[in-house]
Each structure stands twice: as structure tokens, then as C-alpha cells.
Amino acid sequence: MRTDILPILICISCKNSLEQKDGGAVCVGCGKKFVINSDGAIILQAAAPEEFSGTIGDPLVYKLKTIFKKYEGLYFILVRIAGALFVGEETGKTAFMHLPNESIIINLGSGPKIISERVINVDCFPFKGVSVVNDAAMIPFKDGSVDAVICECLLEHVTEPNAVVAEIERILKKGGLVYISIPFMDAYHSAPDDYYRWTTSGLRHMLRGFKEHKLRIGWGPTSTFVSATAHWLGMILSFGNKTLYQLGMLFFSVILSPLKLLDYGLKHYKFATNASVGYYFIGEKK
Ligand SMILES: [Zn+2]
After folding, report:
1. 34 CA from centroid of ligand 1 (Å)
2. Which of 18, 40, 178, 277 could be joined to 1 by an S-S link, Cβ 3.0–4.6 Å?
């Protein structure tokens, strides 16, 4: 595992420090042992989350994801074409690259995406490249121990987003930075489930513990139009069949995809925020 992060991790039972021992990690307070898996990830979770059964949500999309994840390049190309087009100026990757090398940057809900070797991936699933496997509601880092948190398209997928935001606030140093991207007018997308959406006002309220540097459009109004139209056509032409619905929706998402390029211009229009797929927020802990 990454030895640089052990000193800032905490026990999920008693919140004491951990030390490396016998190929795993042990809590100095309660003695609880934590496994370090063959990929070098430390497992700091009470119980592994249930594997997504594929019986709810969008099973075809999930199946495609599973198939394409074996061919990562192809998967990302498909997602890029069918999904909303990101037109923001900064991503989690670019937002914090100016920070000094010794800065602790974590990517919360990273999935298998590796932004940079210096970014610590944290996720509730042990994907390759993940260093810390945790439960969404508890981020097992010490108070004020992290310089920056990246949290891309995660909060709509957790049941208690306010609790996650409180945890981000807790682990950040004073003046520590956050990059959060989040949906407003996006269609249902399971990963493995989908719970919430935010207006700009709702987002500002939830993130009121942070001084706002930027709140910008990440995915614009044409992505909203394309997504709604593809879902609408998929639904109309499905005759109630889930597979037809998913296929139709994917087909029209791809066909209408070039329209989304308009958002590079439309994101500057007044009122564009009122119908955009989503936003990104950059701020610092007060
Ligand atoms: Zn403990």
C-alpha cells in the first residue's frame, strides 16, 4: 500500500490511528485489524457493499459497462459519445495540479479512473488503482489531514450526500480545496443507484461550509435536450420492453450526440444554468 497515507488514516470503529502490522493494518486504540488487499488497497469498511444485481435501474447500461470495462479505452469512448458532454473549463484532474507535490489530494468515489499518480483514489468498491476502500458515509482520514478533495459525479449516488459533504469538510485542512461535480437536469443513471439532483441554490446551500471560488456549468443545456429526447424516444418506442428502451435510448443518444458541441457556446448564455445537466463547484474550507 501507499505508506504515505497510513499516518492520516483512522480506524472505522474508534477513530484512532492505524499502524502497519503483519501485512495489514491494526488500530492502536481497539486493536481491530484491517486487510490490505493484493492491489495494495486498505479495506476500511464495515461490510462490503452488495454487488449490483442488475435487476433494478438500467441493467443493459450496467451490462455494457461491465463488458466494456474489460476494454477500458472502448468503454470511455462509448461513455463520451453517449453521455453528456463536459464543457467546463476545469476537471478534477486540472483543478488542483498547481498544488505542491507533497499535498494530499484524494479522489472520492474515484472508480477505476486514475487522474494522476499523486492523487489517492478512495472508493467503496476495490477497483484497481483504489488505495482506500471505505463506506460512503465515513471517509477514514483524520480531521484536517487533506489538502484537496475531488468528488466527481458521486453525490447523487449516495443515500446521504449531506453526510458525505460533512465528512469532506471534516478531513480537509482549513483553506483546503474541493472540486465537486454534480447533476441538475440529468436523466436517471444507476451506478449502482441514483438518488438526488441539485439546483445552483440547493448546491450552494449544501456547500455553505465552503467559500465559493467557482460554480460553473459542467454539462450544458444541449446535453439536457439530447438526454431528455433520447430517453423520451426510447420510452415511446420501447412498447414497455426494458431492453428496447435501453437500446433505443442509447441509439438516439449516439445519433444526437454531435448537437452537444453547441454547449461550448451556449454555456455562456444567460439562463443556461436554468436547464443544464450539471455543474462543478470549486471552493475552500472556511
Ligand atoms: Zn479502533
Report:
1. 10
2. 40
